[in-house]
Amino acid sequence: MFFPTCILGYNLDIIYLTYCFFLLHKYVEGSSGIFFAKSYGDHMVLQGTPYRAIVWGFADKIGDYVHVTLNNTEVANTTVMADPHGGSLGIWKATLPVQENNGPFTIRVSSSAGSATIHDVLFGDIWFCSGQSNMGFTMGHVLNSTVELKEAANFTKIRTFQTPLTTSKTPLTDLSNASSWNLPNSSTLAGFSAVCWLYGKYLYSHINRPIGLIESAWGGTPIEAWSSPDALAKCKFGSEANAAQAYKYACQFESMIWDWRKKFNNESNGETNNFFPFGFVQLAGNRNDSTYVGGFPDLRWAQTNHYGYVPNVRMGNVFMAVAMDLPDFSSPYGTIHPRDKEDVASRLLIAARSVAYGERGLNIQGPIPGAFIYQDNSLAIYFKDDTNPLDIRSNSGFEICCSHSLDPTFECPLTTGWIPVNITSHQSVSLTLDVTSCIGHNLHVRGVLQEYDLAQLRLVNAIMTWIILTVYFYFCKTEVEGSSGIYFARSYGNHMVLQGAPNRAVLWGFAHKIGDIVHVSLNNIEVATTTVIADPNGGLSGIWKVKLPAQQYQGPFVIEAHSSEGRARLIDVLFGDVWFCSGQDNMAFTMNQVRSLGGFSAVCWLFGKYLYQHIHWPIGLIESAWGGTMIEAWSSNDALAKCTSTGHTVHRANINLPSVLWNAMVSPFLPMTIYGAIWYQGESNTVHADRYACQFDAMITDWRQKFHNSSNGETNSAFPFGFVQLAGNSNDTKRIGGYPDLRWAQTANYGHVPNPQLQNVFMSVAMDLPDFDSPYRTQITSMFSLRIHPRDKEDVASRLVLAARAVAYGENGLDFQGPYPSAFKVQASSIAIEFNQGGSPVDVRSNSGFEICCTYHADPNYACPLNSGWSAVNISSHTSSSILLDITSCTGHGQYIRGVRYAWHESPCQIKQCAIYGRDNDLPAPPFKHHL
């Protein structure tokens, strides 16, 4: 039924990626009449309690009855329905009971056409890891890769799935190419997402239940590609012909998240939570020019939907890892791909623990400003959470916008006209900026900008058992054991992890007989039945789909699906948590590039590894990432619609066409119950970072909705969503570029997550994790390249996991965020900034990093320019919870200070040397800007 496939793409106007797959297809154990969807297989993790997992697939006989067993006990039954898309095979889909037992299970589906079985299935949490290159950045490329890869085989309850890179103009019912769920080892994990793996690893150590990690990332892709048309439709910004210029990221991201949630929920028959947690990574610094602004700051801001933090009112159940302080200017993979994914994953984890898992008492964010107060020539910034004292590591990073206008509605320019200002003093929850450069010139401060980072947690590697999957561009395509009549979808396979309790895992696949009954068993116990239905997309085979009972037992299980056409089997399946790892280059960045595991995403693997050390149950990691891709490619049409108008075209390669990666690399996973998703993308959207806040929010919302709907409600409709803020990528500390704005957009313009816009969202701040020596660079011109692929993915993943523990797993008492301002007090010659978001005292590592915007206009509404006109100011003093910035350069010349910003550069600092950190948690304050 499947044949070796070779794809060569070309076009007279556009040069497409050219790739060729030489595949040998090995079926899930079973007969030819019924089979699982390709995302199911041996060793997988299905979503466990309190959700019900779904299993589904295809069968030949429409109307046939399908029985589903777990370990030989029937737990569900269903009927094969005609494929609604017109496929030749029917589709069956069954919902399993809630599984308290993690497994392993054997799941068997059977009908009159035969049976199919998957083995060694665990029930736990499934996390979907998506984005562009930094999500795709593999374990083989991270720092400490040798050690990480060597230890990988010890973690048998974390399973990974890597989505083959492909595009489609319409949503696919199943993956176009087969992959498999694998156990982790040095060879399979090297090419898996580092952030995704490290997030899962760190998370496991806290929640101690199986974790399934699904990587679906592609380097260089825009958010539009990851958004469905529904998500895109929610962000309308005119009718520009070029799709790369058509969307605001804040809208797109939010729309994509909600759209994903809706569609995952719908396709899983409501089993995937329609509010499932969604984590992402803010863009790390990528240019060793501290004066360069670029598009990164605006995109970071947009990622939080202009809140600067998540979760927020618009991005609920969203968490993130700030990465702007994690540049890697020596990264051989380009500075845009920092190798430190451990910090990213760690930051992502602590947010996930709180947002996604409800762990209480965790300090999951860096300092977040709460108030800005003039004090003579200074501006005091007070941070919200007084349980996390400020750590001032530099007195710079802030910028202010000044104006002669007294109009309080004056709007600061986007980039020009901002003046750097310094921290002159600080206390535990505040800092003061010197704004004399504004006020001293009779200007009025109208804005303040800062870039901030999320918390970092360093963990000692524990010796545990893990299971992981990887897939390469050249691989052997293997079907789960079974006959030709029924089989699992390609995302299912031996050694996979299915989402465990409280969720119910979803299994699905294909069969020839429309209407045939499919029986699914776990370890020879029938647990579900369903009917093969016609493929709604017009495929030749029917589709079957079932929900498994919520599994508390991890497994391993043998899962078998059988019908009248035969049987298909998955072996060594665990139930735990499944995480979906998506994005562009840094999510696809492999473990052998991380100086630690070979072709699997480094961030994805390290996230899973660190997570495992905390949750102690199986983790499935699915990498679906592609370097160089934009967010548009990962967004469905529904998500895209929220941030753009229709009728657009794209000038870039086909991987950046709106929704093409959503269609091919996300949509096939929707029926699967997952626990959450992590995202590392944004570098490709920095040119129009102001649009990212919409795009990111839209994508998260859309993913959540679609995962929830497609899993029949089993995937949480607000599932936790973690992301990595962009790391520094250029060893030019003056360069601004688009990174600061994109980091800001990643938090929906809050500067931190979770926030009201990005709820149940967590992040790993990476701006202080540059890798300027990284050999993995992106060539921009013959004379200029960016090191956007830092190798330190351990720090990235560690920070991500710390956040995940708090946000995604609800771990109490975690200090998972860096300091964030809560108040700004402008004085005659200084600004006091209070930090009270986190629970750790402020650690000031540098007196620079702050800038102020000044103007001679007394109008308080004066808008500071975007980048120009900002003056650097220094920290003049600080306390454990505040800093004081010297603003005499502004106020001393009769100007008014109108804005202050922090870390508003592509690469705001050398590694872990940004100005503000939490003293106890070593987490950087994320970038922020504030109008005064």
UniProtKB/TrEMBL annotation:
GO terms for molecular function: hydrolase activity. Residues 125-258, 606-710 form the Sialate O-acetylesterase domain. Keywords: Hydrolase. Gene3D superfamilies: SGNH hydrolase (3.40.50.1110). InterPro entries: SASA (IPR005181), SGNH_hydro_sf (IPR036514), SIAE (IPR039329). SUPFAM superfamilies: SGNH hydrolase. It comes from the Eukaryota. This is Sialate O-acetylesterase domain-containing protein. It comes from Sinanodonta woodiana (Chinese pond mussel). The lineage of its organism: Eukaryota, Metazoa, Spiralia, Lophotrochozoa, Mollusca.
